[in-house]
Design a protein that fits this description.
By secondary structure, the protein is α/β, with parallel strands linked by helices. Helices cover 22% and strands 20% of the residues. The chain has 7 helices and 10 strands.
């Protein structure tokens, strides 16, 4: 890494995310973005991947105990702890099922951070585009990033995904569930960049991920996960085309439609495929 290049580290909490890490880690490595993994006792092939990408781009793997339920409270605490130990210029709070990009064609998330830093901003905010496979498709073990082109624009509120920040700004999420900064030197870049959320890779994956999922009582007390609680099995079936979904012409296009922001995920839509 050249002397003047901004150092960037993505901190990623994972549990059984091997299918995503196979795509995400090389993507970050190409941009010279280091990675700290917080592993929540994965039982799939994640540890083989950690070894394969050790030092490039993974610089550390820490462990977090699994309590038989999903705990965002514990995960955010672990992320904050790891961030406090870093000496990078910028940090990204990254989920395994996401790809973060610059909003302009041919530019990447490193470019977005470098531009923000040069212009005196300390935080990047992102627009979330949720990608869906076609019904009956299964992208387990396949390149979802280059092959899933259908998406919807998820925006229940503005300025909801502050996911990259300058470490010296000492930004913290407090009680926002890892979404919006409420503490620190918060100077948000005026342009929103792109967060591609590959929420499910197919119907079987959707059921394994969300059906009967249990959450930490502390999370629920904070009113988190409201759109992921008590999802019926039939609602997790991936819908066909509707007025809510759009297509990119090519996987690397940045021509996203923002004309219909949705406040609900696909399993909350009416049977017609429309959102309420």
């Amino acid at each position: 890494m050249s002397k003047n290049k901004i150092s960037i580290c993505a901190v990623i909490g994972v549990r059984n995310e091997a299918n995503y890490l196979r795509i995400l880690l090389p993507f970050l490595a190409q941009q010279e973005i280091d990675v700290v993994i917080i592993d929540n006792e994965s039982t799939d092939k994640s540890w083989n991947i950690f070894k394969e990408y050790r030092n490039y781009p993974i610089v550390k793997v820490s462990n977090m105990a699994y309590k038989e339920f999903y705990s965002l409270t514990d995960q955010l605490s672990a992320i904050e702890d790891e961030v406090s130990k870093l000496s990078y210029d910028w940090v990204i709070h990254h989920d395994a099922d996401e790809i973060l990009e610059h909003y302009k064609p041919a530019l990447n998330i490193r470019n977005a951070i470098e531009e923000a830093d040069e212009n005196g901003f300390t935080v990047l905010n992102f627009d979330e585009f949720v990608f869906l496979p076609e019904p009956e498709e299964d992208f387990t073990g396949r390149n979802y990033y280059k092959n899933i082109l259908r998406y919807y624009f998820f925006e229940p509120r503005e300025n909801r995904l502050n996911r990259a920040w300058k470490l010296s700004a000492k930004c913290k999420y407090a009680d926002s569930g890892g979404h919006r900064f409420t503490e620190g030197l918060i100077r948000i870049s005026p342009v929103n960049h792109i967060l591609r959320h590959y929420i499910v890779l197919g119907e079987d994956h959707a059921i394994a991920k969300y059906y009967k999922r249990q959450f930490d009582a502390r999370d629920l007390k904070n009113r988190w996960h409201g759109n992921r609680r008590n999802i019926s099995r039939d609602k997790l079936s991936v819908p066909g085309d509707s007025e809510n979904t759009f297509y990119l012409k090519t996987y690397d296009s940045k021509d996203f439609c923002r004309s219909k922001p949705l406040s609900k995920h696909y399993w909350q839509w009416e049977n017609t495929g429309t959102s309420t």
